[in-house]
Write a structure and sequence with these properties.
The protein has 195 residues and is α+β, with helices and mostly antiparallel strands. It is built from 5 helices and 14 strands. The strands form 2 sheets. Strands 1, 2, 3, 4, 6, 7, 8, 9, 11, 13 and 14 form an 11-stranded antiparallel sheet that branches. The chain has a 3-stranded antiparallel sheet with strand order 5-12-10, with no helix packed on it.
């Protein structure tokens, strides 16, 4: 894990793309548009991330398939959304609204450093199960989570983790935004600092 406790870390191994969230949309590769509202199934929650950043970590079959919390903070109970299972390979992203149709699970986290954020796991073809570990929720409905603590794992094949950060809460991600604009996914490793 990155030693700086306030650093934004990668929650997994994979290929990272970063998108600006504008007018409720993420504009990814090949100009396909994905609505944050469709991702979350909540218009009010989606509006909180307007002007923020969407980090998409695409795991490949060869990547380590356990993932961790990207930040410490108070986590609300996870929200599970059932759906179809499509591949998350780039060619599929051109033709299908993959992230809004696939089975997914997300956690809203009141982070210690980055404000309110969302960490979402997206299932893919051959990955029918997202196995998140149970959390010890208190009477207020929250559980304390720690950056780098294992959150769960995908049970087979490659899949995707999405992190949503609010406007003004993300560190400088200009290099990732520029790479993504050029259709380049940046390789990252679990626990590495995202400079």
């Amino acid at each position: 894990m990155a030693k700086d406790s306030e650093a934004l870390i990668s929650p997994c191994d994979g290929l990272l793309s970063v998108y600006p969230i504008t007018s409720g949309l993420v504009v990814p590769v090949k100009q396909s548009r994905y609505s944050i509202c469709d991702l979350l199934h909540s218009e009010s929650l989606a509006q909180e991330f307007e002007g923020g950043r969407c980090l998409v970590f695409r795991l490949q079959v060869t990547d380590y398939h356990r993932y961790v919390f990207f930040a410490s903070g108070k986590a609300a109970e996870p929200v599970k959304i059932s759906g179809r299972l499509h591949t998350v390979r780039p060619i599929a992203l051109r033709d299908l609204p993959v992230f809004t149709e696939n089975a997914r699970e997300f956690t809203v986290i009141e982070t210690d450093v980055f404000g309110t954020a969302v960490q979402m796991e997206v299932g893919a073809m051959m990955v029918g199960k997202i196995a998140n570990h149970p959390l010890p929720f208190d009477e207020s409905g929250f559980a304390r989570v720690e950056r780098g603590a294992e959150k769960g794992c995908f049970l087979f094949g490659g899949s995707t983790i999405i992190v949503l950060l609010k406007k003004g809460c993300a560190p400088d991600l200009a290099a990732y935004l520029e790479a993504t604009a050029q259709d380049i996914e940046t390789p990252v490793r679990l626990g590495m600092e995202l400079l």
